[in-house]
């Protein structure tokens, strides 16, 4: 029989509802419940945002991306490409040339990112499924076509159905600038717009897809490439294929998975989530101060009970445990209510999208949420640690009471 727990439970479920100690204990429990519920909700929103970022970029990003460790391009040849294609787990290898260029259309112009891609690019990428106007085919009727982002279309008033006005790309040549003939310092190529895509504003406002050979000619890249994008075969582990490619290519190349291609953005979300957890832990600590006050008052109120227990042979450790368990009961019941409430609210948001993002251009209408078991575990651990810390002093004070002075 656990006597300290029985006594602590008796104190907690005391029927003296008007007792100020019971009122403070209930306030403490409510504070812990609200704090833990809020923490679970906020952490779940951060989880949802993290998944939303991955979902948005998944239609644009490859499973693996090979780039040069130094510089923005690297040389390729048939042997080099065959070594990569023959790597176990590699299903598709797409060649990519990407750089900034000046784009003119009619009387308007802007700087865009031109992305030249090989013909097999759309076998591993869903950009063509995001075409909202025209065609996503870059080789239409054996002629080169460009796939333009919706934001670029708005800026330049591009009309893909107008086959008489081409897009004109200009890129500086690697020659000395001639002020008498400035146009000679630029390569200039024209291509007709074939379609308009809409993925996410970051891409829509700056990207234009063109055939690989068109980009290579404009940028004078020859066999140089800025990246190779890899589709991993179905059933193969991406991390395993990544390690094999990195071993094959050595330190001169970087092989990145989808998350590593957006390391800074995902790290920012994780850091914000960590600081939110720490902030709410402090709020829970403040809410738990009520537990400290209620236990301190309980020790004063139960001096005679403590003295009687000690005279009957209860050790200082047993008396200390009574009040530690009393604090634990308040915190655990409050946490149980709070975690349940947080889970309920997150489920309602997932199923009914109660809280809207409030942004007309947002890719989702409501705040995304995703609950993780780890968040519940860490929240519960934080509550246990905080409760133990605030309960130690009142418990020690109870254990140190003099028997002769309080009987």
UniProtKB/TrEMBL annotation:
In terms of InterPro entries, this protein maps to:
ABC3_permease_C, Lipoprotein-release_system, MacB_PCD
Q: Where is the ABC3 transporter permease C-terminal domain?
A: 278-401
Q: From which domain of life does this come?
A: Bacteria
Ranges where the MacB-like periplasmic core domain occurs? 27-247
Q: Looking at the keywords, is Cell membrane present? A: yes
Where would you find this protein in the cell?
Cell membrane
Q: What is its main location?
A: membrane
Q: Which residues cross the membrane?
A: 20-46, 274-300, 321-345, 376-395
One Pfam assignment: MacB_PCD
GO CC term, one of those recorded: plasma membrane protein complex
> Which keywords label this protein?
Cell membrane, Lipoprotein, Membrane, Transmembrane, Transmembrane helix
Task: Name the coiled-coil region(s).
Answer: none
GO term, biological process aspect, one: lipoprotein localization to outer membrane
In the bilayer, the protein is annotated as: Multi-pass membrane protein
Q: Which family does it belong to?
A: Belongs to the ABC-4 integral membrane protein family. LolC/E subfamily.
Q: What is this protein called?
A: Lipoprotein-releasing system permease protein
Tell me the classification of the organism that encodes this protein. Answer: Bacteria, Pseudomonadati, Bacteroidota, Cytophagia, Cytophagales
């Amino acid at each position: 029989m656990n006597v300290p727990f029985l006594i602590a439970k008796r104190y907690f479920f005391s029927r003296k509802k008007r007792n100020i100690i019971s009122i403070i204990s209930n306030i403490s429990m409510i504070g812990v419940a609200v704090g833990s519920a809020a923490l679970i909700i906020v952490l779940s929103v951060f989880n949802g945002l993290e998944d939303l970022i991955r979902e948005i970029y998944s239609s644009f990003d490859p499973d693996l991306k090979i780039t040069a460790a130094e510089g923005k391009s690297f040389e390729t040849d048939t042997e080099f490409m065959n070594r990569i294609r023959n790597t176990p787990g590699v299903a598709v290898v797409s060649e990519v040339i990407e750089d900034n260029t000046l784009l003119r259309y009619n009387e308007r112009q802007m700087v865009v990112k031109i992305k030249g891609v090989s013909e097999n690019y759309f076998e591993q990428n869903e950009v063509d499924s995001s075409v909202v106007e025209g065609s996503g085919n870059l080789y239409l009727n054996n002629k080169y076509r460009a796939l333009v982002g919706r934001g670029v279309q708005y800026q330049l008033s591009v009309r893909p159905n107008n086959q008489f006005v081409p897009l004109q790309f200009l890129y500086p040549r690697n020659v000395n600038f001639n002020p008498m003939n400035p146009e000679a310092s630029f390569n200039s190529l024209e291509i007709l717009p074939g379609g308009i895509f809409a993925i996410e504003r970051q891409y829509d406002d700056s990207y234009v897809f063109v055939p690989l050979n068109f980009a290579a000619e404009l940028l004078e890249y020859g066999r140089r490439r800025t990246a190779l994008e890899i589709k991993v075969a179905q059933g193969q582990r991406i991390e395993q294929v990544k390690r094999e490619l990195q071993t094959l290519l050595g330190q001169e190349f970087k092989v990145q998975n989808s998350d590593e291609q957006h390391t800074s953005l995902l790290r920012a979300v994780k850091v914000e989530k960590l600081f939110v957890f720490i902030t709410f832990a402090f709020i829970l600590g403040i809410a738990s101060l009520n537990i400290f006050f209620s236990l301190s008052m309980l020790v004063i109120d139960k001096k005679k009970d403590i003295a009687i227990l000690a005279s009957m042979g209860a050790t200082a450790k047993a008396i200390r445990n009574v009040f530690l368990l009393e604090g634990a009961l308040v915190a655990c019941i409050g946490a149980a209510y709070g975690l349940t409430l947080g889970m309920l609210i997150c489920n309602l948001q997932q199923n009914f999208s109660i809280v809207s993002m409030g942004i007309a251009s947002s890719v989702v209408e409501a705040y995304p949420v995703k609950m993780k078991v780890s968040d519940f575990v860490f929240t519960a651990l934080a509550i246990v640690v905080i409760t133990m810390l605030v309960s130690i002093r009142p418990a020690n004070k109870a254990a140190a009471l003099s028997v002769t002075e309080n009987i």
